[in-house]
User: What shape does this take?
Amino acid sequence: MADQYLGEDNYYLNTGQLICIGPGETPQMLHRDELNWPEAAGQDHEITITAIFALTDFTEENGATVIAPGSQRWPGAMPEVRPDQTCRAVMKAGAALLYSGKVIHGGGANVSQDQWRVGLHAGFVSGWLRSEENHQLTTSLDVARRLPEHAQRMLGFRSYVPPKSARLGMVNYEDAGVLLE
Assistant: This one.
């Protein structure tokens, strides 16, 4: 998905998180993920995309993600969203929700007494932007050396080389991969 919308080897892992919404949790504020980079948001092309994998069933009762379908085309950074413009990403464990960073969404309220909604969130961001999580500080060089080159690139251990300009994220003017040699 990231190759398709952000360009092959043209992105980093932005966030890799377990999202656990427990009983009594209030709804998350609706938002567009691309607004983490306000100066880059609102472009015609994608700058961030996300996949949420349901590790438990996502139900309306336990906090299934609220989505505003078609909001990727709505003008403005964060337009008002009426309840009748939203739906819930109800899905069985093992299913995935894939969406653009332009889509308005948020975790739903968990009104259950005893159900946890658990999902694996994997977000990706264009290589010319800084990821929210700094994986180079949380992954040791020893671990990074053992990863496939594509995983090294997604975690920022390889430099970003855009098609028509200079490289970014270099070490001593060389690809960051020199640190892994």
Observations:
- Residues 2-130 form a domain with the Jelly Rolls fold (CATH 2.60.120.620).
